[in-house]
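Summary of Year 1 activities. Much of the first year was spent building the evaluation harness for sequence design. The harness presents a backbone, in tokenized form, and records the residue chosen at every position. We chose the following record to illustrate the format because it has been used consistently in internal testing since the harness was completed.
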């Protein structure tokens, strides 16, 4: 039985309990993020952090692990030895075999009564049900407890539903924080302000004034040591189902009535439900799967995907996807959304490009014909917003040239930028659900993605090879060229 959180929860001291606390994500992201929150006094007073793991470690051994594996991921400029020591004093380590119900007694002893318990499940999703069940049987879950679920949240629609059902038996929906770290990025949140805090874009933010939208998340890294996970996952499930579709939602959603979690999530859900389902013919025409072969990134030679450790030599897993999506609603009818993501691409670059409609007619003959303005929202590595427009070239004639209105957000606003995980962890502690996915959103995203996975199987296509250090297979450029369009870097 689940119950609704109480309003007093905000004033309680916090026990942050991290399952998978000795894992890679915890070491690289969660523990450094909590350190930054501690350094900037964003953790409530008397917060405790209890890391849970399988290893038979003492507290001291866990702290030694943190020194070695986590501290290197703390921004060196932000490191303060005294603050770090105080941070370590918040920690406890509890050894638990998550399948053994009796082990949870150790957590009962370590966690304080009457606190707000936040359970962060940074484990394989197959363990979520067992962990929640055992936590509940041990009496550790109450109406104020919160659970954070790390991705991957399912492998397909059925498994995502099963996770939601199972976790829902122990936690009510307002207690569940499904994390998509892209929603914690400063620039992604800024996109909401760009759209809903500036009147000038409102009237233009629709068909026919917008001709197309591009969303690119390009990475230079390869699969690294994650082949065991990645080879069963691929870029569509790893990146498109969550991060790229969430970006698409923020670009495409109607103005929510407020920033309340459900107001925002209702609007995102409508977008996901309006995505035009793809038939097998659409999939053959409008999607491109790629896999990197050996090449060079940033001047360094790199292996191909099939040569990476633990990748089967006949693997057909995609490390690149480009696709054309459509949203069936009034605002976006006939506006293609081009999504693209890949590993071992030329540059680390995430951006959203809004291509405005061409001039209906140009009275100035000496300019680029049919020029449309372009708004480029760069999310990473730099945060900037550029508006491409035409201006007159100085001189006696009337020649027009493209120029950029360029806003460098780092320069314009010099305040500290918290990492996505820091911001989201603070949101969990403060009970702010706006930047977390609701159950129906997650399922709607899977419902759209799953037929693409099935379609690829039916088509039996091997991924197209692309050389590491390029922008993916040539078919990705062809996808846009077919409509007389191009990716931003091809301009
Ligand atoms: C993760 C994916 O969710 O996001 C990784 O599992 C990917 O494969 C990462 O590398 C990208 O995140 P960021 O913040 O580095 O763009």
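For this record, the design step produced the sequence shown next.
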């Amino acid at each position: 039985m689940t119950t609704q959180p109480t309003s007093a929860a905000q004033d309680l001291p916090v026990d942050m309990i991290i399952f998978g606390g000795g894992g890679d994500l915890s070491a690289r992201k969660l523990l450094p993020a909590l350190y930054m929150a501690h350094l900037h006094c964003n953790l409530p007073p008397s917060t405790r952090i209890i890391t849970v793991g399988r290893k038979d470690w003492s507290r001291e051994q866990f702290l030694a692990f943190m020194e070695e594996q986590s501290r290197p991921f703390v921004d060196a400029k932000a490191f303060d030895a005294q603050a770090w020591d105080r941070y370590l004093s918040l920690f406890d380590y509890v050894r638990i075999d998550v399948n053994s119900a009796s082990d949870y007694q150790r957590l009962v002893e370590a966690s304080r009564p009457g606190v707000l318990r936040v359970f962060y499940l940074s484990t394989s999703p197959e363990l979520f049900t067992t962990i929640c069940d055992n936590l509940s049987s041990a009496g550790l879950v109450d109406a104020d407890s919160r659970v954070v679920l790390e991705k991957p949240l399912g492998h397909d629609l059925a498994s995502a539903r099963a996770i939601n059902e199972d976790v829902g038996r122990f936690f009510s929906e307002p207690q569940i924080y499904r994390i998509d770290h892209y929603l914690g990025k400063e620039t992604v949140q800024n996109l909401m302000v760009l759209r809903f805090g500036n009147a000038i874009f409102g009237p233009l933010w629709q068909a026919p004034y917008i001709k197309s939208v591009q969303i690119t998340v390009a990475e230079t890294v390869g699969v690294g040591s994650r082949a065991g996970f990645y080879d069963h996952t691929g870029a569509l499930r790893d990146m498109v189902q969550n991060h790229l579709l969430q970006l698409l939602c923020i670009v495409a959603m109607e103005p929510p009535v407020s920033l309340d979690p459900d107001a925002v999530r209702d609007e995102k859900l409508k977008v996901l439900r309006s995505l035009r389902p793809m038939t097998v013919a659409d999939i053959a025409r409008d999607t491109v799967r790629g896999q990197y072969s050996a090449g060079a990134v940033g001047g360094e030679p790199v292996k191909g995907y099939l040569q990476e450790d633990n990748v089967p030599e006949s693997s057909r897993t995609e490390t690149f996807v480009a696709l054309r999506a459509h949203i069936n609603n009034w605002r976006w009818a006939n506006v293609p959304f081009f999504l693209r993501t890949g590993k071992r691409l030329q540059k680390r670059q995430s951006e959203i490009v809004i291509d405005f409609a061409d001039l209906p007619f140009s009275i100035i003959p000496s300019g680029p014909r049919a020029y449309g303005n372009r708004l480029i929202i760069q999310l990473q590595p730099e945060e900037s917003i550029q508006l491409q427009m035409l201006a007159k070239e100085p001189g006696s004639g009337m020649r027009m040239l493209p120029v950029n209105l360029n806003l460098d957000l780092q320069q314009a606003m010099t305040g500290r930028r918290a990492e996505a995980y820091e911001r989201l962890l603070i949101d969990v502690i403060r009970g702010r659900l706006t930047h977390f996915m609701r159950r129906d959103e997650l399922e709607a995203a899977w419902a759209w993605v799953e037929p693409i996975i099935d379609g690829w199987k039916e088509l039996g296509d091997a991924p197209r090879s692309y050389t590491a250090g390029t922008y993916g297979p040539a078919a990705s450029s062809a996808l846009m060229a077919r409509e007389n369009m191009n990716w931003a870097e091809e301009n």
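The pocket of 6-O-phosphono-beta-D-glucopyranose is lined by residues 219, 238 (CB under 6 Å). Quantitative recovery figures across the full test set are reported in Table 2.
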